[in-house]
Write a structure and sequence with these properties.
The complex is a heterodimer. Chain A is mostly helical. Helix content of chain A is 88%, strand content 0%. Chain B has a domain of 127 residues: Penicillin amidase (Acylase) alpha subunit, N-terminal domain, CATH 1.10.1400. The longest helix of chain B is centred in the first third of the chain and has 27 residues. The chains are: A mainly alpha, B alpha+beta.
């Protein structure tokens, strides 16, 4: 339950933070969320990973369907011939990796005290 | 303890990835991936849906006297409706920034030698060269001139418009190139407009062959040089018709010959491609079906994405004008209003001279002129190279101009450059703003007197029925041949004798033949009293004659005829060279596939059409023929800079002097070859080359062979187009080259009401590779189609 709520919370907070903060706000939010959620290492990592993967991947997908398919196609070519859907996945994965690392670090941070 | 370790390790990994993804990977083209890929501020935010419908928006800003109405048509061409010219130009600046911000930034960075600030050391040499050439110096001088005129407020309004757009930008909105190169847009300034203007001047007027000509004169002597590199050719069809009389008293010229200079060892820096050029013409009502004039223009420039042109209409209570503008320059450069139309081609006179400086001190601060020492002005240039410490370099300004070619440790080898664009006395913006609101021929003549550099053949037509063309610009007066070679900087006798007075510039109004035209050929007949010569060692040789021959015979001209003429692919060069080349071949001695190629060439009608095989065979054959003919020049070129003779001279020799000494091959000492042997040897070489190419599975069709690359200005392949099938050739009126060609085709037909106009450029209105309007006009352009240009009424 905490895991699911954590994901939903991180997606919401991450989305809001991204409107005002630079791209690394995802790391910041997942760190704070990880500290609040206080889960063990791998679970914390997985929670952040899934949350930010979904946040970034779905946001990219939303953009893709609202006019970004041309730029996605060209950027995919630029990055070595990657398709639009694959690019959404890569975007999600990079976000997810950072989210996971942030969340896990936050979790460990909480456990120090 | 263990948990602290886990936290530490986890934090380090997390920070490492965050920092890694926040920065470009040094030494690679990999951009900061976190910044670029994230869906909130990265490239995902650069999408724009293709807008195929008309849209009206209103621009409101505290700097505007009233809100400005902008109607975007289906091709995203803005039609600006403003209450004052200032408001209109503010809106123009705003719209250009909205559609072309990165293009504006990178072009002016390139012009002012500031690329290294964003690209690092790899562009430092190029930057230093731009500063040594005095690009910023030239722009600052132009700006000083502009500031003196009341129109400067319009430049400021334009600047404010650009900055109003930049000010409201959030990082998520930055054009994709800023994100990829990891930097921010900076404010626009009037100096940047001047820098853009000088970038045009550099593209269109910086070329010269002075170093090469100096060397070839030294090595081959005056008479061979005159034979191989003539300035005049028989059968010229100049811009100003041969029957125009120049009835004025020219400025008196001393008949002195400048002292000769020895060999110049400097390597020549890269020059703008000689194929850049343009066509323009206007036919009078006596030759059209409607009885009203038609004006046409197609400037052949580098073809890039985004395009160098942006299309728009500017409507104010005092003027209503439509056309194309340059991103960074206020007003419309080529266009029409309700009563007048105008267009430009490049004049191409040599307006650059080189002076050899004799320094008197090891620090190179003083140099000799007429036996006395003069001090050079030293300017320290700073280059804030990305990721490096600032690099400093001193540029020395002599009385002639900045020292461009430096020779370390030698006191009498440096070369200073004098270039009209460095301190031209014109106000080019005034010209275009004047033309934008011109109503009659007097307005046209008054507006263009402000135009100094780069000199343009400005063609004009109006509803009343007047047509005219002027070779307009600041053109130096020199004694015969002075400045075709490097001159001594030690004597004031090497100086220019002023500039041709504006009223004595070649010009013709309503000529007998019923049309005016230009295609970068020689401006006048030999009767023009001032000596001048081409910056490329020869003026355009084929398009001008093709155009005049065609226009001479045309009657009852319609818009469709003019479209056909702009898309004409008849190759006069081939027509003049091929019969003589074919006559040298002995058909019985040919093998296969030589015989097949011979037959195809015999049947060819000299048209560079998509399906034609002739263009492939002829162009390849002629290239081989040229290389073998001028083997002596290629041999010299290995050691020192020398010029290549022109195709036109080569073809002249082929037709009239097939026994000329230069046809003899250097590599054979036992016999003397003539044009006949060269033709045969080069035909065999061509046949082998093309047979190999065919064997690779290529169909023998011109559009398969011809390569056209329309590159992104930042040379990002994913943002470029190289897949277009086109026809034409640089020597045909439809002058499509490898990376350049007709950058805007415009036809304006006058009539009893508003003019009917048609146009197209290879690109799209948006500079955003993520927009449907980035390259949407390319296919239609390649297929020779036009769009109707609507001069909308005020509503």
């Amino acid at each position: 339950m905490k895991f699911i709520l954590g994901i939903i919370g991180m997606i919401g907070a991450g989305f809001l933070a991204a409107q005002i903060l630079p791209w690394w706000s995802a790391v910041l939010i997942s760190f704070v969320a990880g500290a609040i959620l206080n889960m063990n290492g791998w679970k914390s990592f997985l929670c952040g990973l899934v949350a930010i993967f979904l946040l970034w991947g779905l946001s990219a997908g939303w953009s893709f369907h609202h006019g970004s398919y041309i730029i996605a196609h060209r950027m995919g070519n630029l990055l070595g011939g990657v398709g639009g859907v694959a690019l959404m996945f890569i975007t999600g994965l990079i976000g997810g990796l950072l989210g996971g690392l942030g969340s896990m670090t936050g979790g460990y941070f909480r456990k120090i005290f | 303890m263990k948990i602290i370790l886990k936290f530490g390790l986890s934090a380090i990994i997390c920070l490492f990835f965050t920092i890694l993804l926040d920065n470009p990977i040094p030494g690679t083209p990999i951009p900061p991936l976190g910044k670029v890929l994230n869906p909130f501020t990265g490239f995902w935010q650069n999408g724009e849906q293709k807008q195929g419908k008309q849209e009206t928006v209103y621009l409101e800003h505290s700097e505007l006297t009233k809100k400005v109405k902008i109607i975007f048509d289906q091709r995203r061409v803005p039609h600006i409706f403003a209450e004052t010219t200032e408001d209109a130009l503010f809106a123009q600046g705003y719209l250009l920034a909205e559609h072309r911000l990165w293009q504006m930034d990178i072009s002016t960075r390139s012009s002012s030698g500031r690329l290294s600030e964003i690209m690092g050391t790899k562009t430092l040499k190029r930057d230093q060269l731009q500063r040594r050439r005095g690009m910023v110096f030239a722009a600052e001088n132009a700006l000083d001139n502009w500031k003196k005129s009341p129109e400067f407020t319009l430049v400021e309004a334009y600047t404010n418009g650009v900055n109003a757009f930049i000010d409201q930008l959030q990082p998520a909105d930055y054009p994709i190139e800023f994100k990829l190169l990891n930097y921010k847009p900076e404010p626009w300034t009037p100096l940047k407009t001047a820098l853009f203007n000088k970038a045009m001047a550099e593209m269109l007027s910086r070329a010269n062959e002075d170093i090469e000509m100096t060397n070839v004169k030294n090595l081959l002597g005056d008479s061979i040089t005159a034979d191989l590199y003539p300035q005049f050719y028989p059968n010229e069809s100049p811009i100003i018709p041969n029957d125009v009389v120049f009835d004025f008293t020219p400025v008196d010229l001393p008949k002195t010959t400048p002292p000769a200079i020895g060999l110049i060892e400097h390597k020549v820096y890269s020059k703008p491609p000689p194929q850049l050029g343009s066509n323009n013409w206007a036919v009078s009502g006596s030759k059209t079906a409607s009885g009203y004039p038609i004006l046409c223009n197609d400037p052949h420039l580098g073809l890039t994405l985004p395009s160098i042109w942006f299309e728009l209409q500017i409507n104010t209570p005092t003027s209503n004008v439509y056309g194309v503008c340059l991103p960074g320059v206020p007003g419309i450069v080529i266009g029409f209003n309700e009563t007048s139309a105008w267009g430009v081609t490049n004049v191409g006179h040599d307006v650059v001279d080189w002076y050899k400086i004799n320094w008197t001190d090891a620090k190179k601060e003083k140099y000799l002129v007429d036996g006395k020492e003069e001090s050079a002005a030293l300017k320290v240039e700073a280059y804030k190279v990305k990721g490096q410490e600032t690099v400093y370099d001193t540029v020395r300004y002599t009385r002639w101009g900045p020292v461009v070619h430096q020779y370390l440790g030698k006191l009498n080898k440096d070369l200073a450059m004098r270039w009209v664009a460095h301190n031209s006395a014109g106000n080019e913006l005034k010209t275009f703003l004047g033309l934008n609101s011109s109503k009659d021929y007097t307005d046209y003549k008054t507006s263009i007197t402000n135009f100094a550099s780069p000199a343009q053949n400005i063609v004009y037509a109006n509803k009343k029925g007047d047509i005219g063309i002027t070779v307009q610009g600041q053109l130096p007066i020199r004694t015969l041949d002075q400045g075709t070679t490097v001159q001594s900087g030690e004597s004031t006798a090497s100086d220019w004798r002023g500039f041709i007075p504006m009223e004595q510039l070649p010009h013709v109004k309503n000529p007998q033949r019923g049309f005016v035209s230009s295609a970068n050929q020689r401006s006048t007949s030999a009767n023009y009293p001032y000596p001048y010569w081409s910056m490329h060692g020869g003026f355009e040789a084929y398009r001008g004659r093709t155009l005049n021959q065609q226009l001479d015979t045309m009657e009852q001209i319609t818009v469709a005829d003019m479209q056909d003429l702009q898309n004409d692919v008849y190759g006069l060069k081939a027509a003049e060279a091929l019969p003589a080349l074919l006559a040298f071949l002995d058909k019985t001695a040919l093998n296969e596939p030589e015989r097949k190629y011979f037959e195809l060439l015999t049947k060819w009608d000299y048209k560079y059409e998509r399906e034609a095989s002739g263009p492939i065979l002829f162009n390849t054959w002629f290239t081989q023929f040229y290389k073998k003919t001028w083997d002596e020049i290629y041999a010299l070129k290995k050691n020192i800079e020398v010029p290549f003779p022109r195709n036109r001279r080569t073809i002249g020799l082929l037709n009239e002097e097939p026994d000329h000494d230069f046809f003899d091959l250097e590599e054979t000492t036992d016999r003397k070859e003539t044009a006949k042997e060269i033709a045969r040897l080069s035909f065999t070489a061509m046949a082998k080359k093309i047979a190999d190419w065919e064997a690779e599975g290529n169909a023998l069709e011109w559009s398969n062979y011809k390569k056209l690359s329309i590159n992104h200005i930042g040379f990002i392949p994913a943002f470029s187009r190289t897949d277009l099938k086109v026809e034409g050739d640089p020597k045909t009126l439809n002058a499509i080259g490898e990376t350049w060609g007709p950058s805007w085709r415009m036809i304006v037909a006058f009539g009893p009401g508003k003019p009917k106009a048609y146009g197209i450029y290879p690109g799209g209105q948006s500079g955003n590779p993520g927009s449907g309007n980035y390259d949407n006009m390319l296919e239609d352009w390649a297929n020779g189609k036009y769009y109707e240009l609507e001069l909308m009424d005020r509503q």
